[in-house]
Amino acid sequence: MVTVADRLLTVNQVAERLGTGLRFPRRLIEERRITFVKVGRHVRIPESAVEEYVSAHTVAPIVLRPASAYLYRRAA
């Protein structure tokens, strides 16, 4: 949800925050995969929308068991 206090970022600022080129945030906008605001002919993306996008696409690491647990198995 976009609030009035939410800072609106330009496409350049979003690309910089995500560490990508300009094309990626523009594609997110075109495909309607991120919330954006039209200000006249300009497009702005709320800061909260960028945070939501990042948190929704964050992949948690897999926790593996130590290798030693596999070394000492008994045969059935």
Distance between the termini: 57 Å
Helix content: 25-40%
* Uncertain residue segments: none
Mean pLDDT: 89
How many E-type strands? 3
Strand % is 5-15%
Major β-sheet strand ordering: 1-3-2
**Largest sheet properties:** 3 strands, antiparallel
Q: What form results from the Cα inertia axes?
A: elongated
Question: How large, in whole angstroms, is the Cα Rg?
Answer: 21 Å
The number of helical segments is 4
- What is the string of SSEs from the N terminus onward? EHHEEHH
Structural class: alpha+beta
How would you characterize this protein structure?
- The chain has 76 residues and is an alpha+beta fold.
- It has a domain at 8-57.
- The chain contains four helices and three strands, in the order βααββαα.
- The protein has helices spanning 11-18, 23-30, 47-56, 68-71; strands spanning 8-9, 37-39, 42-46.
- The protein has a three-stranded antiparallel sheet.
- Helix 1 (11-18) packs across helix 2 (23-30).
- The N and C termini lie far apart (57 Å).
Question: Could you list some keywords that capture this structure?
Answer:
76 residues; alpha+beta; three-stranded antiparallel β-sheet; 4 helices; 39% helix
